[in-house]
Design brief:
Oligomer: single chain
Structural class: alpha/beta
CATH superfamily: P-loop containing nucleotide triphosphate hydrolases
CATH architecture: 3-Layer(aba) Sandwich
Number of strands: 9
Largest sheet: 5 strands, parallel
Radius of gyration: 16 Å
Shape: globular
Number of helices: 7
Distance between the termini: 8 Å
Order of helices and strands: EHEEEHEEHEHEHHEH
Strand content: 15-25%
Helix content: 40-55%
Length: 190
């Protein structure tokens, strides 16, 4: 993938809940700090270890709807009863500055972004197996059984759509998965 002068590269990074997106991305960003991660909006409840403005921008439903009405959201999706969205302004600014911007987004939102940015580099992160995925979701101890079952049902649908992505990385080993993502980014001239 060639990028234009002074135009950055947009990277879509998706995978089912429990695939390890946050963990893999934190390794990737640690190894290549020139990469920029877009911090998404969400209306879901903040987990104990999450920091507003670092992991997500936590919003109320009303705040989220206002940003949508003002055209301040590049893409959004409803996932498990909560909304997630990408702030448009910061992404446009980073791309204009020639930076590589990673969007950690759901499959629904990724499809919307590809319509606006058809040249975006799309990477799908797969769990090694459905059993490992369920084990990871349960190990979090953040969701009730009903939420876990909802996440597993959504994961099955998302995995069926992996062929919409240019690359697929299996997260069966954290170091190897981070290496694979970095190799994809560097080989694609990001």
């Amino acid at each position: 993938m060639k990028k234009q002068a002074n135009k950055g590269t947009l990277v879509i990074f998706s995978g089912p809940s429990g695939s390890g997106k946050d963990t893999v991305l934190s390794k990737v960003l640690e190894r290549d700090p020139s990469l920029k991660l877009s911090v998404s909006f969400t209306t879901r409840a903040r987990r104990a270890d999450e920091i507003d403005g670092v992991h997500y921008h936590f919003l109320t439903q009303e705040q989220f709807r206002f940003k949508l009405s003002q055209g301040l959201v590049l893409e959004y999706a409803e996932y498990g009863g909560s909304f997630y969205g990408t702030p448009k302004g910061p992404v446009d600014e980073m791309l204009a500055a020639g930076q590589t911007v990673i969007l950690k987004i759901e499959v629904q939102g990724a499809a919307r972004v590809r319509k606006v940015y058809p040249d975006a580099l799309a990477i799908f992160l797969m769990p090694p197996s459905p059993e490992v995925l369920e084990k990871r979701l349960r190990a979090r101890r953040t969701d009730a059984e009903e939420q876990i079952q909802t996440r597993l049902a959504i994961a099955r649908e998302e995995i069926r759509r992996q062929d919409e992505y240019r690359f697929c990385v299996v997260n069966d080993d954290l170091e190897r998965a981070a290496d694979d993502v970095l190799n994809i980014l560097h080989d694609s001239a990001c």
